[in-house]
Amino acid sequence: MSESVSKSSSELVAGVTLSVSPSLIRPDVVELYEEDNRPMILNRSILQSPIMGQYEFTHKAIWAVSLPQTNHTWDSINCFLGDSVPNFEHWAFVAQGYFPGMVDMSAYFVAQYNSDSYIPTAAERQEEKRKGVKKYHFAADLVENNKRHAALLLCTTKSKTNVWVYLPDSSQQWINKGDILIDPDGQLVSGGFNASQWESMRTPRKLGELNELMYQTNLVGKKYTAGENNCQMFAKSLFGLA
Q1: What is the distance between the alpha carbons of residues 26 and 3, in angstroms, rounded to a whole number?
Q2: Does the pLDDT of residue 150 top 90, yes or no?
Q3: How many whole angstroms separate alpha carbon 82 and alpha carbon 101?
């Protein structure tokens, strides 16, 4: 069920604190993770690491999972919003990259926008830096060598671990390109690199460059709303930039 694991670049970085994402790995899902290659929050230490910064990302996709809300209230809201939030799917932007000269060392950049997310403006980020106080905690995650763990970041419950891929066609319609994980318990069915489930990025991006693209999306400085400023709008915006 898990992919083979080689030595990760994080093991080569001295003095860097790597942390599991407590806000994204839900208690009901955490037991599905193996001990190795847990997700890392992309904090300043990682982004400024000369070793981690060498990761180069070349392919992008949108991954999706069904949300657990299924009662009549949610169904009514879904009917009202129409295509704005189809089927209450949660979308995330995902990029795949490699460590230079080590083709067996892959990495997955996973960026998600949730109801409690806020992406600070350039001025707000500058004010944070000036004061030396972290006020805004929006961040992507990095997963090394484990595609299943990257996909599990989208899941909030063990009852919904079917994660699949969307890519746009020539008319910019989002087409289902097959599963990454299936129920039960997030079984990996698409390991390694499957070319049909990825699109080449506009240009290869280093880790820091890719991270900065999040602050150029059209949700910067906006509060979450179900019909407009939501996970799908964020994922599509970042996909278009990357």
Answers
A1: 22
A2: yes
A3: 47
